[in-house]
Amino acid sequence: PKETKQKVTKPTFAYPLQGEIVLPYSMDHAIYDPTLEQYHTNASISISAQKGAEVKAAADGTVMEVTEDAEMGRMVTISHGGNWVTAYGQLEDGVAVQKGDMVKQGQTIGTVAEPTKYGVALGSHLEFSMAQNGTPKDPLQHLKKAE
Fold first, then answer.
1. In sequence order, what are the residues at sequence separation of 6 or more whose Cβ sits closer than 8 angstroms to the Cβ of residue 127?
2. So what's the pLDDT on residue 42?
């Protein structure tokens, strides 16, 4: 019998938008958060962007959920192959996708909102995180640089 072992390929991730990293990923040591005026670990990156800037899916996938909370604002979570998940926070109301939607890399999923009070010192920005098998990963190590 032929082997039907499925090869799990890691998705190629593109930047969800261009901008300066205003708060880096840091799980191995605490970094200073200018809004909360305290040090903490950070499982995401904050990418500076104009309010209204388009946020794109980092890779093909399926929208797992669209949520909203005080800290992250409106957030879209997308499931990709190989147990990879990306999340996009600080989005404006009326995101362009809903739970169950299939998205393509580069597809607009929403726009950057005014920051929540938890991120106001950073200015308007996208809160972007990435995990594999539920473990946070540094997006900068997995995003391909814009050509």
1. 44, 45, 46, 72, 73, 75, 87, 88, 89, 90, 119
2. 94
